[in-house]
Design a protein that fits this description.
By secondary structure, the protein is of the alpha+beta class. Helix content is 43%, strand content 19%.
Length: 644
């Protein structure tokens, strides 16, 4: 029975954990020690420097007793140390790599067993071998992942050499226990991953609940802007726990005013910041959210408000109404680097949630002020990705449009007298002909000459450049069905048209290249068939002459020449067949052939290659391989080939 008490080497190992120095470096460690994939696999288990666990401790106790040694360790080899997840008869948690024997186990095919450490060049200079505690015997079974990365070993150690090593039974048990160590590590990683997933799900559920609650408040607000903004700040702070304060900064002229403050910013409601010269103003004017990890390092932050607000890091997200920014949602913390990119995305989700509610509030205000839907229509038109032109009938006078149409056409559209718009438009069709003023879809529709007219033209923009533009017009009628005007959708199709042309050019080039390739193959095939036919003819003539002269010993070689020439001719014919297939002129017909003859021809073709490598080709033909009776050749020489 091995006693589980203390051992003198515990103090020796514990007292010296300093990094290795070049002066005392021993033999080089296996290159696998520093392998990035191996180190990443070890890091993926997140096990280094963790507390002891009973499952691992039980394994080292069993290993120690099975092998009758004073020490057993679960050793994990990092980039600069070896760390012990479990140890029996040993008190130190780690050693530097210059004292590691386990590092050498990483490069072994199987277990590493060193009967006498003083006699092995890898370990005879190890400080724990040359000095206290004078280690002598080591046996380690590798800890290997399913992907083949070796992380360390389950090892047993003795201070006495064991020239016989481990018994077969002990070695098998040690490897089995090493497998159990990996099973424990896999279970531990799976449990940790499950905990992380559950924690992430809890956070996500909390964020979703906060988002749902905010949406419910917005739905009940019925256009109450203050209630919507209060719900936005409260919900965002609940979903982003790192936020110590939150506020909405609304634009009023050239200033931003603090509204709906919470947390550390509640006392600052009413404070004003300049629109120009502050990070909040930058976010509002650009419409882009900003994550500021440290306000002291961002020159856009107004310096004199940092200390009073107790702010070191912050998130700024524009708040829009009807597509136009009206303010900024700011979440702040007194700690630097308090927020992550995920926090920024969550804040943007909350800001987007209230956009509809704020738009409703804006529409309510607009109805109270002007009682018209013109602003709503304008907002819709200006946010469309296409241009819209509205004209009256039958004059064709343009009475309205969005800004997008001017961007696409490159010139203004209004003001315009009857018919003036299309008269000054200039464009070419696909065939290069110019579009006449009377042919524009807007004119045809408003004059009642056609309905649902569309065309794609190469348009001359206001800046002198040309761009492909699509025009699609439809008539507008009143309640009695009378034609009142027309609406034209103007689309920027330049990128699509250019791509179509590039695609057509590429297709044409590919077809031309394929045609040239087919012609080349056909010409080359015909050029090669002539000399091959001569080779076949001469080989047949030589065979006849050799038979007449009684030189039968030369016939096998001549037959091989003929066979290979016919084989090459067949390949050339196959190339011609490919050309016929591509030209769709290939005729397919069924043909009977002798399977054994084909097999023998193939064997004869490769016979020289097989013999050149010193190999033996054995041809076995089953009974009646082609539907007729044939002898089965097994181990017999091929024709004209001696048996070997």
């Amino acid at each position: 029975m091995v006693r589980l008490g203390r051992h003198p080497w515990n103090e020796a190992l514990t007292s010296d954990l300093a990094p290795q120095h070049p002066g005392n470096a021993g033999p080089p460690l296996p290159a696998l020690v520093g392998d990035v994939r191996r180190l990443n696999a070890l890091a993926d288990y997140d096990i280094l420097d963790t507390a002891p666990e009973k499952g691992f401790d039980d394994i080292v106790v069993l290993a120690r007793r099975l092998c009758n040694v004073p020490v057993a360790l679960v050793s994990l080899v990092g980039s600069d140390r070896q760390w012990f997840k479990a140890r029996s008869g040993f008190s130190s948690c780690e050693t530097t790599l210059d004292k590691s024997v386990c590092a050498h186990a990483l490069g072994e095919v199987d277990m590493l067993v060193i009967p006498d450490l003083t006699q092995d060049p890898r370990t005879n200079a190890n400080p724990l071998v040359t000095g206290e505690p004078h280690l002598r015997f080591y046996a380690g079974a590798p800890l290997e992942t399913a992907g083949g990365e070796r992380l360390g070993s389950l090892c047993v150690i003795d201070v006495e050499p064991r020239l016989g090593g481990l018994s077969v039974e002990q070695a098998e048990c040690l490897k089995a226990l090493a497998g159990q160590v990996m099973s424990q590590m896999e279970l531990r990683r799976a449990a940790g991953e499950r905990e992380r997933i559950l924690a992430g799900q809890e956070i996500l559920i909390g964020q979703q609940n906060a988002l749902i609650a905010t949406q419910a408040v917005v739905a009940r607000a019925a256009g109450d802007r203050d209630a919507i903004l209060d719900a936005l700040v409260s919900g965002a702070m609940q979903a982003v726990p790192a936020a110590q304060g939150g506020v909405i900064e609304l634009q009023q002229g050239d200033e931003l005013v603090y509204r709906s403050g919470r947390g550390t910013l509640a006392a600052h409601v009413g404070m004003r910041l300049p629109l120009h010269g502050s990070l909040s103003g930058h976010v509002l004017t650009t419409g882009k959210a900003v994550l500021c990890p440290d306000v002291l390092l961002d020159h856009r932050v107004k310096r004199d408000v940092i200390a009073p607000l107790g702010m070191r890091s912050a998130i700024y997200v524009p708040v829009s109404r009807g597509g136009a920014p009206i303010g900024v949602l700011k979440l702040q913390s007194g700690e630097p680097d308090a927020f992550s990119g995920r926090d920024l995305r969550i804040a943007r989700q909350f800001a987007g949630t209230v956009a509809a509610g704020l738009a409703e509030a804006g529409e309510a205000e607009a109805r109270r002020e002007v009682r018209t839907s013109e602003a709503t229509l304008r907002a819709v038109l200006e946010n469309l990705p296409v241009g819209i032109v509205i004209a009256e009938a039958p004059s064709g006078r343009i009475v309205g449009h969005n800004a997008r149409v001017e961007t696409i056409l490159g010139h203004g559209v209004l003001p315009a007298r009857p018919g003036e718009g299309p008269l000054r438009w200039s464009a070419l069709r696909e065939d290069g002909s110019e579009v006449a003023p009377s042919e524009w879809p807007l004119v045809q529709v408003t004059e009642g000459r056609a309905a649902d007219v569309a065309m794609e033209v190469d348009y001359l923009r206001g800046d002198g450049t040309r761009s492909w533009v699509g025009f699609s017009a439809a008539p507008m009628h009143d309640a009695d069905g009378r034609l009142t005007g027309g609406v034209v959708v103007v689309s920027d199709i330049d990128a699509r048209k250019r791509f179509e042309r590039q695609l057509a050019a590429a297709k044409l080039a590919a077809e031309e290249a394929n045609r040239a390739k087919s012609e080349f193959l056909a010409n080359m095939s015909h050029e090669l068939r002539t000399p091959l036919s001569a080779v076949i003819g001469y080989s047949e003539m030589l065979q006849e002459e050799m038979e007449d002269l009684g030189q039968g010993d030369l016939l096998p070689d001549l037959r091989k020449i003929e066979s290979n020439a016919r084989h090459l001719l067949g390949l050339i014919n196959d190339v011609l067949d490919l050309s016929k297939i591509e030209a769709e002129r290939m005729e397919v017909y069924a043909e009977d052939f002798a399977v054994d003859a084909v097999v023998r021809d193939v064997a004869a073709t490769v016979e020289a290659l097989v013999a050149k490598k010193g190999n033996v080709l054995t041809l076995e033909l089953g009974d009646d391989p082609g539907g007729r009776a044939h002898r089965r050749h097994k181990g017999t020489p091929m024709p004209d080939q001696p048996a070997r």
